[in-house]
Write a structure and sequence with these properties.
- The complex is a heterodimer of chains A (325) and B (372).
- Chain A has 325 residues and is mainly α.
- Chain A has two domains: 49 residues; 242 residues, MetI-like (MetI-like fold, Orthogonal Bundle), CATH 1.10.3720.
- Chain A has 13 helices and two strands, in the order ααααββααααααααα.
- The two termini of chain A are 29 Å apart.
- Chain B is of the alpha/beta class.
- Chain B is built from 14 helices and 13 strands.
- In chain B, the strands form three sheets. In chain B, strands 2-1-3-11-4-8-6-7 form an eight-stranded mixed beta sheet. A three-stranded mixed beta sheet of chain B has the order 5-9-10.
- Classes of the chains: A mainly alpha (325), B alpha/beta (372).
- At the A-B interface, helix 2, helix 3, helix 4, strand 1 and helix 7 of A face helix 1, helix 4, strand 7 and helix 10 of B.
Chain lengths: 325, 372
Amino acid sequence: MDKTKTMSAPGNISFRVPSYQEIMEKLRIKKASRPYKQIKWEVFFKRSLVAIAILMVLLVIGIFFTLVVQSVPSIKALGIKYLWGKTWNPVTNEYGAYPFLLGTLLTSFLALIISIPFSFAVGIYLGEYNTKGWLSNLLKNAVELIAAVPSVIYGFWALVVLVPLVRAIEIKLGVVPYGIGIFTASVVLAIMIIPYAASIGREMIKIVPQSLKEGAYSLGATRYEVIKSVILPYTKSGLFAGILLSLGRALGETMAVTMVIGNTSIIPTSIFAPGNTMASVIANEFTEADRSVYLSALIELGLVLFLVTVVINMIGKRIIKRFTR
Amino acid sequence: MQYNFLKLQSAAVGLICLSFAFASCNGGGNAANSSDSTKTDSTSATSDNNTILGAGSTFIYPFFSKAFSVYNQQTGVKVNYQSIGSGGGILQLTNKTVDFGDSDAPLNGEQDSAIGVPVLHIPMCSGAVAISYNLPDVKDTLQLTPAIIANMFLGKITKWNDPAIAAVNKGVKLPNTPVVIAHRSDGSGTTNIFTTYLSKVSPDWSTKVGKGSSINWPIGLGAKGSEGVAGIIKQTPGAIGYVELAYVLQNNMAFAKVQNKAGNFITPNINSTSAAGNIQLPADSKVSLTNTDAADGYPISGFTWAIIYKEQNYNNRSQDRAEKVVKLLWWNIHDGQQYCAALNYAPLSPAAVTVAENILKSATYNGKAILQ
């Protein structure tokens, strides 16, 4: 109990513990005005925290406004049909974001579907079955390492290892064996986003109250039943938050995707077809965008990506709220 | 212990304040400068009078970095060239943050009007775009006509044993492999040269697709950079794509002979690329070398141009600085050319050097020619 108290409010509590006198003595030797100074520090510290937090908010708003302002030429030239326009043709200055919007959503959600079984399995195993010891630590660190590897390395690995594998599968399935395409990109993305949902899942499962679990066991529940009817319902909002975090990562990932997605503005007809994502188009075409409408259309693509992320996050928050209720 | 903690806390607070103060100071400074960024940038550039700033084409970068390091040893003048892409280089020049830009295509109408004053295009060297393919069982070098290339990239020729390909490759056993097109996904001068070529030789391509550094490809897989396209070609049996000659040679990839305007099948190499530029050039050198009239010239090649302002006295630049820039480029089109071949760039043809000399001589400072 004591321990939690000192942890929750270190500043105040440490003053009132027995060694207070000792401190006061030392302070008196130095300067009597120290406590007043301390209060000043406290106030200043709090204010700087608030200021930094506000700065963050301003930064996001600033990015949003920059995107809007820079997109104006494109919005003026292309109008709202930019969103569902199906051709992206820099030669004729005709830009439609639909193929890339579709590509972004397709790869992200496909990646999410592929990653969920893995991230949940890792979360449950590390949070419930094997919470301590070297194996648990090794697994935990290995999974977290997945998040630390730079994305270009995933892209490279996918190009060398995954693409031939997918091509072999495609030959078996009888589709055009490109090897690269939406499916390959989704698999790479899935691997990249596993640690986000897995780590949050693990922490959530760890903090399920022992009393709840013990209650279920005492009623004769097996371990699987405890997980199914106690742990998962108890942690579902946390698990969903982890999924949401993974999705955010998948939506914005650029380098690994652009290396294996095929980068074509033709609308994909199957999950094995090549496609493109918004982030990837921006990264590819930004350097050589030599007309103002073109440049602006690319920035508008960034704006759309920004808004898609915001909307998905808002929907996610609502779902979490409904879960917790 | 407790006292230590106190100390630590105040130290931490101090640190945070300090970093915050720095951050805000920095932000304020930027905000103040950004309204007049061009001015501050150029003064910072002129403050080091021995460093010339350039930006642009990534294609030319290996040559520039070699040539400029030699130039630095010989003259002591440093050149800081940033390979940010042709479009970026032109933008930097428009904002007057660099002394010269480098582009794989002449300025387009919009870029011209953005700059507003006359600029000079000085050819630096030329480069070829090779048609590389992956047919593991074909050992002979394939020959391709302009029509075949255009039809492949339009998606009209879909198999490698198409009669049109067989007709110009007698004796070569062509497989029944589907054609997989690989192209650049990033905006690139290489794409510009290649699509300009296709637009010239195929009316169909010209009307349906067009030319540019990024275009709307009718079919195929896109990959970022030469290495990306090369990766697709190497990995995919039946793949064909266009890659800079230098990259193809360094990586031992198979590439085709291409029929030129005179009807000869030409192997892309440094000589045939130089030859492509040995034609009657316009005085401003702003010409695409694709589909060249030269009988021994490889048809898919192009210049890369250094771009400078014609009137070098702008933004309070010193005459000394203007002279240094012009002299650097003068050196590049003469002594610098010897470093082309080793890096698989084609040196300028004699005709092109003469044109480039005349263009450089037209550069002025306060209306007076810089070079006598």
